[in-house]
Amino acid sequence: MTDPLARRTDYRVTFLVLCVGVASFSLLQSMVNPVLPTIQAALGTDQATVTWVLTAYLVSASVFTPIIGRVGDKVGKERMLVVALAALAVGSLLAAVASTVGVMIAARAIQGIGGGVLPLTFGIIRDEFPREKVASAIGTSAALLAVGGGVGLVIAGPLVEALSYHWLFWIPMIITTLAAIGAAIWVPESPERTPGRINIGTALLLSGWLVALLVAVSQGHHWGWASPEIIGLFVAAAVLLPVWVVAEARSDQPLVDMRMMRIPTVWTVNLVALLFGMGMYSMFAFVPQFLQTPEAAGYGFGATVTQSGLLLLPQTVASFIGGVAAGRLATRVGSKALLVVGAALTAIGMFGIAFAHDELWMIVVETLFLGLAFGLAFAAMSNLVVAAVPQSQTGVASGMNTNIRTVGGAIGSALLATVVTSELQPTGLPVESGYSHGFLLLAITATAATVVAILVPVVRASTHVVPGPQAEWEAEHPEHVQA
């Protein structure tokens, strides 16, 4: 019998292309945050309007991540990977040449479509890689999301100072264009497909409650939590969410299979993702802000954007090390153990920042703990979800996990902004206790994530594997299949 994968691209080449795509998406998530005031001044807008540069990307990525993942399960993951990378490239080009804030916001919404890169990457890895390589490959690619977030904070300042903020988009455009070409040439089309059509009705319902919720939590601090607009958005989300769940449960062709979402491993890991996202994304936003606070405020270090980014470099390196090590460690101790350790280290790091932040070395050590935690936990969450679902649902399952983590980040950032700014000095800067209480809140959510992680049941990766070309290849190459 002819080897069904003999003529397929070497999985290491495929992995390189996938990592470039994931890294580009994660960079675009974080690079804009530190230089938002620069963009505001350059485009001649106000603070309330420029926040939509972040909100548009957040909302678009949250909506499209599970949808693109599901479409990839149905029509082909390689094809949709090219589409997602092309959206990142087009959005980056439009943002680089934007002369008004409206064009910039539209560009960021287009970039959000690229959120589908992550679930498509996990699905392609599961379909194409030898089984003993799957855990480490998923771990590394998942950790790149945390690594890219940290790298974005490190390079944003120097890049803007040396060139201009436009290069925050020119560079990702070049990288994602090359990645899209590489995906079209070298990434093989997935042999796994989910039959049926895309359920447009449930996709609209999913988009509706996500948009309502995320706009409310991201703009509540600016519009006022008791404003009619914010209350109306929360009410809309509260109504649309259960309607979406019921519609999916009754549908013959669900966009997100509710039976899959009820798998114990899936829903418990998703709950960890929600709690974990609250801490990680909030840390990316508020630790640099804390470091940049003038010493005249009685705390902070008066760091520049560039200096605060460099102070977080050890955290970025630790994230990468944790993600790379997670795959190998998972084969020895299991992904659940890594998830518990990652969540526990997050809690330790957050408690440390809340109570010990008087010296720079304290912040560096504490964020290093957080970086290691992010690398381990991201890899573990992705591996646990991928192993728990049928191969044909890898895209949508990992997409929803990524999405829930993003929702957690939006909620955490909104809560932290409210806590930090609840009491201001005459200069307009937050008092120190605002940061202490905010980081303490994140430490509590990380502790809750640790408890939930302990309760996550473990499913063998082989339990739900659907026979196909990969299974045939493994049968003929038992030396590559892990017992």
From TrEMBL:
It is a multi-pass membrane protein. It is found in: Cell membrane. The keyword Hydrolase does not apply. Keywords: Cell membrane, Membrane, Transmembrane, Transmembrane helix, Transport. Its main location: membrane. InterPro entries: MFS (IPR011701), MFS_dom (IPR020846), MFS_trans_sf (IPR036259). This is MFS transporter. It holds the Pfam family MFS_1. PANTHER family: BLR6921 PROTEIN, MAJOR FACILITATOR SUPERFAMILY MULTIDRUG TRANSPORTER MFSC. GO terms for molecular function: transmembrane transporter activity. The chain crosses the membrane at residues 12-29, 49-68, 80-99, 105-125, 137-159, 165-186, 198-218, 230-247, 267-291, 311-330, 337-356, 368-390, 402-420, 440-459. Residues 14-461 form the Major facilitator superfamily (MFS) profile domain. GO terms for cellular component: plasma membrane.
